Amino acid sequence: MQSGNPFEVIIERLDQLQITVNLLSSHAEKVQAGPASDPNRLIDLTEAANIVCRPIGTVRHYIHHRNLPAIKVGKSYLVKYSELLDWVQKFNDPQLLKKSAISPMLSIRKRYGK
Out of 1, 23, 66, 71, which could bridge 62 as a Cys pair, Cβ 3.0 to 4.6 Å? Predict the structure, then answer.
């Protein structure tokens, strides 16, 4: 028969789990802090999509049609982290936004002569 309190065993195991979770979370923070400090690192489309909060297909569209600087490696693309941030910052300029919104209309007007 068991003479000890069964809750003590549960509390000990919970303490062990808490120590393990704390250790894993501190290790995860160290791993994430390392690569983010290098602005010249290359990131894949998945990371770039997470940064700009868009789907991967949209980031691929940005590469093809909106001049997002990228390097093609095989069938995939790599983007320099600092260039991605500069490219995103470029769209915060009000002058550029106004010009980019008007230019498609002007190109259609020139094409059809109206």
Answer: 66
